[in-house]
Amino acid sequence: MSQDPLVILMPSGRRDRVPAGATLLDAARQMGVEIESICGGRLTCGKCKVQIEEGSFPKHGIVSASAHLSPASREEQALLAEMHASGCRLSCVAAVQGDVLVFVPEESRAHKQIIRKSATDRVIDVAPAVRQVYVEVEPAALGHHRGDWGRLQDALAAEWGLSDLRIDLYALQRLQAALRKGKWTVTVTLWQDREVIDVQPGYAEGVYGLAVDIGSTTVAGYLCDLRTGQLLATESAMNPQVIYGEDLMSRISYAMQHRDGLDKMHKAIIDTLNKLAAAAARSANLRASQIHEAVFVGNTTMIHLLLGIDPVELGGAPFALANRDAMDLKARDLGLRLHPAANVHVLPAEAGHVGADNVGVLIAEEPYNQDEIVLTVDVGTNAEIVLGHRQWMYSASSPTGPAFEGAQITFGMRAAPGAIERVRIDPISKQARFRVIGEERWSDAWPAGPDVPVEEQPKHLASGICGSGIIEVIAEMFLAGILLPDGRLHPDCQGALFRWNGRKGAYLLAAGHQTTTGEPIYVTQDDVRSIQLAKAALYAGAKLLMNRAGVARVDRVVMAGAFGSYIDPKYAMILGLIPDCQLDRVSAVGNAAGDGARIALLNRRKREEAQRIAEWVRYVETAVDPAFQQEFIAAIHLPHAVDAFPHLDGLLPAAAIDFQPTRTRTRRVRA
Amino acid sequence: MSQDPLVILMPSGRRDRVPAGATLLDAARQMGVEIESICGGRLTCGKCKVQIEEGSFPKHGIVSASAHLSPASREEQALLAEMHASGCRLSCVAAVQGDVLVFVPEESRAHKQIIRKSATDRVIDVAPAVRQVYVEVEPAALGHHRGDWGRLQDALAAEWGLSDLRIDLYALQRLQAALRKGKWTVTVTLWQDREVIDVQPGYAEGVYGLAVDIGSTTVAGYLCDLRTGQLLATESAMNPQVIYGEDLMSRISYAMQHRDGLDKMHKAIIDTLNKLAAAAARSANLRASQIHEAVFVGNTTMIHLLLGIDPVELGGAPFALANRDAMDLKARDLGLRLHPAANVHVLPAEAGHVGADNVGVLIAEEPYNQDEIVLTVDVGTNAEIVLGHRQWMYSASSPTGPAFEGAQITFGMRAAPGAIERVRIDPISKQARFRVIGEERWSDAWPAGPDVPVEEQPKHLASGICGSGIIEVIAEMFLAGILLPDGRLHPDCQGALFRWNGRKGAYLLAAGHQTTTGEPIYVTQDDVRSIQLAKAALYAGAKLLMNRAGVARVDRVVMAGAFGSYIDPKYAMILGLIPDCQLDRVSAVGNAAGDGARIALLNRRKREEAQRIAEWVRYVETAVDPAFQQEFIAAIHLPHAVDAFPHLDGLLPAAAIDFQPTRTRTRRVRA
Known about the structure:
The structure is a homodimer.
Chain A: E1 6-10, E2 14-17, H1 24-30, E3 49-53, E4 55-57, E5 62-64, H2 74-82, E6 88-90, E7 100-103, E8 112-116, E9 122-126, E10 130-136, H3 148-160, E11 166-167, H4 169-181, E12 185-191, E13 195-201, E14 208-214, E15 218-225, E16 231-238, H5 248-257, H6 261-283, E17 291-298, H7 300-306, E18 327-330, E19 343-346, H8 356-365, E20 374-379, E21 383-388, E22 393-398, E23 419-425, E24 432-436, E25 464-465, H9 467-479, E26 497-500, E27 503-510, E28 521-523, H10 525-549, E29 556-561, H11 569-575, E30 586-590, H12 592-602, H13 604-616, E31 618-619, H14 626-634
Parallel strand pairs in A: 1-7, 11-13, 14-17, 17-19, 20-29, 22-31, 23-25, 29-30
Antiparallel strand pairs in A: 1-2, 3-6, 3-7, 4-5, 8-9, 10-12, 12-13, 14-15, 15-16, 18-19, 20-21, 21-22, 23-24, 26-27, 27-28
Helix pairs in contact in A: 5-6, 8-12, 8-13, 9-11, 10-14, 12-13
């Protein structure tokens, strides 16, 4: 046996001969398989455990036995027993003495991956900016004047190859006590392998991060375990700035017209972020001070306000950003109460009206890695639209207004329990049935009458209509012939319409006994107009980019944002929100901006990708393009230019115009 | 005339031919003469003005005339007239057309120098870490999405060759408004050519810095103009930590024994620094928010407390520092209210007991650039001693206690108006005369009696004895034969001694009518003992280093610290504070640590020098060296081993022992 022992690593199947005496950790490294290790071979962390496969493996030409490894010491046995890891060894100490077949379990792999649950089920590599390493530091001794930080730097260089480090004052303040309490062993928390942000005595573990999508209306936070990539908690809150203005322009105006406007809005969002971080931490049994990094996305106005920068320049041409690039800064400089030395990463923007939220959508969906032409629309108070594939990409912003979020809709509300999110209208009776968030049964299956036991009553009555609900009800009204293609209520449908608030022509969606207030919920002519304007703006923006790129059709449509994964692509296309596309190639991916923030939180290389893409994508200014107005006007109708939507064939109400109203319901609303 | 025009620059006398049409600024640069320019040739700053010498200069082989330069534009003429600079031109626009002789005035030279007023009159090159540059930035325009910060970076790269810049959030928050108010011209304040810390509209000037020496007892601040190097204000304050402990060890104990001890002492010094910065700014007609950088020196305990680091490790072997190296951090992270984006630089330490203050002394005195062997002693509550020259240097710390600062002396006080700083004792009568700070006349020249007009009365009566006063009075007592060489009061001198506070043997230094309280001021046997212990510690430390270095004598002695420039080297040597040396080679340089802080503030290259020297000097631990105790005991006497002080020959009281007391004064003190 003059040959070195053979090591095979499963499940990758990689194999190589290694010098006898090498540890399994070294062997794996030699084969390009990264096994996690925090303690660096000190039998403290147990992160590097591997399963030893015993027996004869003819397929692999190998006989593997535990005797082919150095025997386990008492410490190793104790640690493995504590971890209930029978049949396992710690790869940092188990030395190869003969051929061996080893299974590296998922949790021991250094580069973990997590599956993002969404329409596209994307895999995220876990390679965060914050990590922990355990080191043994040379004790202080008389005659050595290097200082404890100098000694720690020496240890980090020798054991982990880390150099050019700086230390945050917070960590420096705790260094000496930690070294002595840990008997000259400490766990160091590093940011970007550049800055020491914490030092804890002995062996410690736990690094956490918060990804936040700051929307104009809603703020969504995702608390993650930065070691495993696991999502620990999701929290959302209203953006408190809504009291200063519903949409971006009104907030910019508020900042312009009030001396303390910027300051108030900045403090309001910081305050909300602090509460959100605390709530997310609490629901994961953590404290906000354990959040070591935060990544933010948001539209450009939200990011300006987050950073305390006056958004006034975003209110008028040429829409100049204070800063387009990604930024790293100290959370404490913003007044954020996370870990005292935590850093904050803000994703870059593309242009004055296409912000970090859209960059988040892009790194989550990666249209720039596709061969097909993908149209990505992210609908919030503004809509950002990106068209392209790996060779080129154009982006634009379209002033849809907040109608898709349920705002400026008479009975609109955000997507919360009690919001009507699904609607069907009987084309004969013109009566609607609906489903609300938080109650699985459709409204026509709700038991009625005074004798219904509490447990059979609907969990939530209807409180209003959310974004996806308003899309569906208007599309269904059109399909049922209640709306004319130009958006007017059909004159022959008066029987289905009611007088509401002194005005004629309100469509009854929910009757008083179906609502929380006891008052009916209507869809008004104004609501229809709002949605028409919004969808025309969205469609015109997409069309403008298609014209600019010289393409007549798109291969895929990805809908992100406000109505999240709840929108039914069919209804989006019936209303003409998006250009024609094969229906099964239209997907709704929910809050992809938030997903992008989470991806950037978990993978620091994605931040570099974000910066590259943000600079690369070509921004098209819709506001100054005369073609935009033309496309917009042409897109007001429902559905505008039926020819443009071959994939809607058979879905549209051919007989809508010939509709004769029935008169089954005649109840009138109080004036 | 095929030759290029000849340009001669005075006073350097450098000469070179330059292409016709080159500006004088370019010509100077080509010749290695740096002329200041903030506005970069935009006729805004006027900093680059030079004097044009007209006439024939046979010695230089040149005829110079104003026609040999391009004519001055109306703007240039206007700016020169405003500056009252007749016969001058602005070198950034005056183009060379013929031979010309130019005088570059001191204020136009880019590398200014200032003279430090001290015993050694050192020259400081002004090359601070903070500077201002004026730039024109490309206006924002539709279709350009670089962001204002991106555009500013482009301008700074193109006009000033600056790259890899970051921007402090404070500056970013002000960037957009400044650019628009300044019509796309701004003055940028840069730190270390790495970070933008402020942006002001249009042309602006004014960068200021604060150098601070944090002593255990006194905090001294020096406010400087960072462009000219000029000292604008000096402020000092008591270190408020004295209420938690007079000396270092008692403050360390306080931190150990009180849960909030560190926090209290940290807050106390920060509070005092804020007040000191505000006071210094006020007396220079500035605001503290205009202080763009601060440099700190102090002993290691003071620096730990400044940074909020528990000093407990400095209280016992092995005296480990949290950090030995220089540090840069944000002033705001320490709670300092300077410019909102100001940075703080802390000079490095040498070892656990030789701190940034000693490094300050070293870069001010530069013994490491000397050929002679220099002994540098910096006397505060601890004494730091450095011995060496350009080839080697040793440092040590010696526990002198605070006696030299006037503390632990019965009637001791700090050097303030009313403190006795000079003493002479008549060897026959044994009576003292003295001088107090703030009054030029010696006490025996003070007019007495009820009819003295107010303007002839002493400006200050005596309030106590400061450091240099206690040295002089004890040395004079010895010279007058009142003290025996072992420090005891001479038994034959009872006539000159009084009972004070129930104890015998107090020497009357000032009578009641000469003091602010109306009570006499005495020197007690305890005071003599305190000074003996302190001077023995200082001498033993110096001796230890001489032994370590294997040298029998030193060429020069530099005394820095507590008793400042006021100590008379003769008395220091009579008491045996310092080893023997030729008297005219002993100099007292005052607060050299503070000077070092000021030098590091004004010259960033000196910071690198400080870091190099701090690592290079070899620290000798006195506390654990048995030789130290021997030297200490041998040095208790006054003067110990007369043989060791050949340079005192003739100064010592040969006949002291034979002294017969006279009985001219017999007044007794109230019990």
